[in-house]
Amino acid sequence: MTRMIHMPRRAALMAGISIASIALSAAAHAQDAAAPQAAASDEGDIVVTGVRASLSSAQAIKRNSDVIVDSIVAEDIGKLPDRNVAEALQRITGIQIQRQYGEGSSVAIRGLTQVRTELNGRDIFTASGANQLNLEDIPSELLAGIDVYKNPSADLIEDQLSGTINFRTRKPFDFDGLKVAATATQSYFDLTDKFRPSASLMVSDRWDTGIGEIGILASVSFQKTAFRQDTISTEPFYTLDPSNATDAAVLATLGRTGQVTTLPHGTGIGEVYGDRRRLGTDIALQWRPSDTLELTAEVFRSDYKFRYDDYSFFAYSSGSAIIPQPGAAFTYADNGDFQSGTFINVPVGNNTSAQTRHSTTTDYSLNLKWKPTSNLTVTADGQYVDAKTRNLRSIFGLNGVADTLYQDISGSVPVVNIGSATGLANPATYTSAFYLDNLNESKASDKTARLDAEYRFDAGILSSIKAGIRYADRKNRTIDTGYRYTGLSGIPSELETVDLGDFFRGDADLFGNIIAFNRGIIRNYQQTLDTLGIANAPAYTQSGTNEQRQKTFTGYATAFFKADPVDGNIGVRVIRTNLDVSGFYQQTSIVLDANGNEVSGPTVFNPIATSQDYTSVLPSLNLRVHLTDTLQMRFAAAKNISRPSFTQLNPSLTISEPGAAQQDQIHTTSGGNPYLKPMKSDNLDATLEWYFSRTGSLTAAAFYKNIKNYIQTAVSYRDVTFDNGNSYEYEVTSYNNVAKGKVKGFELAYQQFFDFLPGPLSGLGMQANFTYVDSQAPSPATSGPVTNVPLELLSKYNYNIVGIYEKGDLSARVAYNWRSKYVVTTAGNGTGSLPVFNKPFGQLDASISYNVTPQFALALDGTNLTNTRRATYFGIDSRPRDAVVNDRRINLTARITY
Questions:
Q1: Rounded to an integer, what distance in angstroms lies between the CA atom of residue 196 and that of residue 175?
Q2: Is 34 exposed, middle or buried (0-12, 13-18, 19+ CB in 10 A)?
Q3: What are φ and ψ of residue 671, in 5° steps?
Q4: Beta strands 415-419 and 430-456: pairing type?
């Protein structure tokens, strides 16, 4: 039986948003909009608040730092300039972000993704085999600020090529006494047409007691978001080979014998619905028993849940020839690339799937700072991180054959029309069904201990000497069932008709409704198994286990000096790394069960284990020259290393035989490379910085990185024979160290409030920055029209323009971010080693807030207001890959501070 599901169109919320904006503005003018900032008689004692205060604090950090750093400071408790951490970071010069389902999830600094993430100067990561924290996981309300260190010094922890991102939380001694802050937010997501709540609460206080001063802070943040993503995809392109009989016949049918002709092997659409939930807690205790001793204990926990379910429908011939319809009209680009035409007898796939991820990271830390004399400071620090991640993937698929497939990829939105005599919403169109499921869990831990001492001199060129030692022991263990294949004996009755009328916001020319497995069932894993008659979840086996353990032993020494107008530091950091990794190579064949259905059979496996030990010596030099009271320049030279992630080192490789319903698909698998070496980088940086007011600056920076052993994606082709004698070709995606890579570029940044303008116009301000990054690196695994590509995820050009207004109690911001094209991957899975590029795109965000009273504020903000459409392509514009649309997000927030 079938039932009709209508996917609702987005609600008309914009009118309500406009009313809220007008209300905020009206309230602002009802107050004294020209209320001056609090000021003392001396200009040096001017008190600034709001956006000006945050920009002033960030500018002071940048100006006074011993190294090259950029910062974001929350203008109020629980108020970063963007609600998403990655999206806040994209406003910083030199940072580019990656989005997952419309939300920022990871960053690159100066074109490199080898970024170290820290929490209060310590390790922080997600248990997933990565060396970093997934930036989706952390609620922004828990942060006081974010610092981005772009060049290393000897006292900063290693393991990055491009920079370190340090997330700072608040402490009870940051406040004079009792402090309470709370927020409540209602968010609307227009494509999925859903509302979601968020809230946060922080309470902090400090007391003088008989055993010294004690402070306690507790903070909690809860966020829920929803999303929808619509995608139209074009399958990889293949250039016809006239020496191949099949290709020659296709050329003859097209009337293009003797002409270069390239055809896509199909197309598809995907409609993804999902939710995110973040729960963050932070508890900090500080004790100052005397003026010379301070102890800080903190527990920080991030609890993140991610879920999506989707429909996908595609017609494709995989690596087999696609058959043109004789006599049909075809058009081509000047280079012979297909632009439009009709194919016949094309295999179709119709999937309904679900994926979930639950990640928790708990950080326990203890810090002791002791000043036995006015010149000597000793700091001891201990940390334990416990991280867990669970993933589930569940896929139901139908297979059949379409009579016709018409494609037109010449426009910005590809036209896709798939025809079947029986109809795509008719179960009779589909001849077979299958089910795939996979479970995996990762558990990671990290134990670190650190001891630092700094001695300050009262006079002379040498201002201080700082030295320290550090020990870290990090473990990661992942268990994975591998994908289990279950062939179904017939087409299940639990199907529903899917209305695609509002797909791609109604802008797509498609093939009408489809029938698909019930989305409500696929969201519940156990219900899916019960519905399909599958007794149990797949079992974890020994061969599905991989483990990594990394120990580091570190010592460093740094000398800080000052001889007007020059100051700086010089130092060296020495690290011994011990690494052990283990896993299994395994193959799983298809067998028939008692009913004659195909199922995954026994697994054959072999263990793999390797070890590495190496020592790294990392010198660094940072110089600053004070040219005038407001103008300074910097020069920095340093060596860096970035170790491969545990995922990249994972030696396990799992190859499962395809079932009958998967025979026409491209067969892919992926694994790591346990023999990867750490990447090494020689870095040069220079800046020129002019600070002409508390919130006004104009800065320029240039950088150069010479990288050895750079790690890139590599694809190889492997013929695999299973125990039953069946053989298939697999695309195996892994990683290689390429010989060398170079990254160079420059950054420009400007910010200012135009206080010299008359009246209300004096509240206007502006931030603008521009980044140019150029890279050179061998591309180990590309083919097609473009084989010399830059580093992955690196845009050559990137800029931000932010308009600001703050006057009295009213504050507003409009921010536009743009980046040029970049390589998504040098060799995409299932693309025949074709590099995939993302087209240039920009996004507009805005916010407005009003302080109703000194303790109560309202804020309205919107993300992706221009409904940015993103697109990827295979190297050249005439070969599109994906066209994607995501939600616009609107948030209305009430904020209370006391």
A1: 32
A2: exposed
A3: -165, 175
A4: unpaired
User: How do 667-670 and 727-737 pair as beta strands?
Assistant: parallel
Token pair for 365: 């830390």
Per-residue pLDDT reduced to its tens digit, 664-686 = 667 777 788 899 999 999 999 99
CA dist 406 and 322 (Å) reads 12
What 3-state DSSP class applies to 529?
helix
Residue corresponding to tokens 């899917």? 498
Tokens of 226: 């929803």
117: closest CA among 853, 861, 645?
645
Q: Other C-beta atoms within 10 Å of 696: how many?
A: 20
Distance CA 487, CA 858 (A): 55
Antiparallel, parallel or unpaired: β 566-592 and 653-656: parallel
Q: How far is CA 121 from the centre of its chain?
A: 21
Q: Give the other-Cβ count within 10 Å of 520's Cβ.
A: 12
Question: Measured between alpha carbons, how far is 559 from 454 in angstroms, rounded to an integer?
Answer: 10
539-573 residue pLDDT tens: 988 878 999 999 999 999 999 999 999 999 999 99
- Count CB neighbours of 757 within 10 A: 11
DSSP state of 152: -
Instruction: Report the relative pairing of strands 143-149 and 194-209 from DSSP bridges.
Output: unpaired
Q: Please give the model's pTM, rounded to 2 decimal places.
A: 0.88
Q: How far apart are CA 7 and CA 682, in angstroms?
A: 54
**Residue 337 backbone phi and psi in degrees, to 5:** -75, 135
CB environment 618-640: b (16+ within 10 A), e (fewer): bebebbbeeeeeeebebbbbbbb
pLDDT of 7 above 50: no
* Distant-in-sequence, close-in-space partners of 252: CB < 8 Å, separation ≥ 6: none
361 pLDDT tier (thresholds 50, 70, 90): very high
Model pLDDT, residue 78: 57
Cα–Cα distance measured from residue 434 to residue 661, given in angstroms and rounded to the nearest whole number: 7
For the stretch 635-658, pLDDT in tens is 999 999 999 999 899 988 878 888
Do the Cβ atoms of 673 and 583 come closer than 8 Å? no
Nearest C-alpha neighbor of 79 from the set 843, 897, 696:
897
Q: 225: which strand partners?
A: 276
Closest C-alpha among 549, 555, 546 to residue 650: 546
For residues 353-370, give the mean pLDDT: 97
DSSP string, 237-296: EEE--TTSHHHHHHHHHHT-TTS--EEE-EEEEEEEEEEEEEEEEEEEEEEEEETTEEEE
User: What does the alpha-carbon distance between residue 790 and residue 671 come to, in Å, rounded to a whole number?
Assistant: 23
Residue 717, Ramachandran bin (φ over 0: left; ψ between -120 and 50: alpha; else beta) = beta
Q: Map residue 597 onto helix, strand or coil.
A: coil
Range with top average pLDDT, 8-12, 132-136, 313-317, 772-776: 313-317
d(CA 795, CA 787): 17
Using CA atoms, how far apart are residues 108 and 103, in angstroms rounded to an integer? 15
The torsion angle over the Cα atoms of residues 523, 528, 530 and 531, rounded to 10 degrees, is 110
**Cβ(581)–Cβ(546) under 8 Å?**
yes
Residue 319's pLDDT is 76
